What does this fold into?
Amino acid sequence: HKDAQGYEIYISESNHPFYLMDIVDRHILQYYVGYLPKYSNVAFKIKAVTVLPNRNISNVVSHKLTLLPSKIRSWKQMSPTSIRLRYQAVKGAKYYDIYRASSTAKTYRKQIRTSQNEFMDTGLVPGKAYDYKVRCIDGNQVSKFSAPYRVKTKLDTPTFSIKKTSQIKLT
It folds into this structure.
């Protein structure tokens, strides 16, 4: 604001009351907070102020940090028709939504909402590729989707048993 002589920066962590964190000069256009973890339930308020008592120039503006997306780490085929997918646990996430698309359809469909950081997917077609995405949920906060992760199930390996029933002579 053009009449502001400075800005008061307030912070609230994990739904605690706001407290004054810093006062900065009006020429500061960026403010760096270096101690926050990757995900933290933190809200900021910034108030433009002058040195005149009881004269606040602007309303309080709030910003809440967003929930970071997870990252799919690995998968393992458990049977020709099932896999176990593992993804990174994200601090603050209460649930993970797992989406799957077949390599031909490309339309992602939600498979499950779980609090675990792994998922067993069943009913797959042997020899077919699938793409997975994960997103984190915490109350009303929803993260962006993870990068797509491609999985291709292996075909059934047939087993043979050969019994000797007669001798064959080749010439």
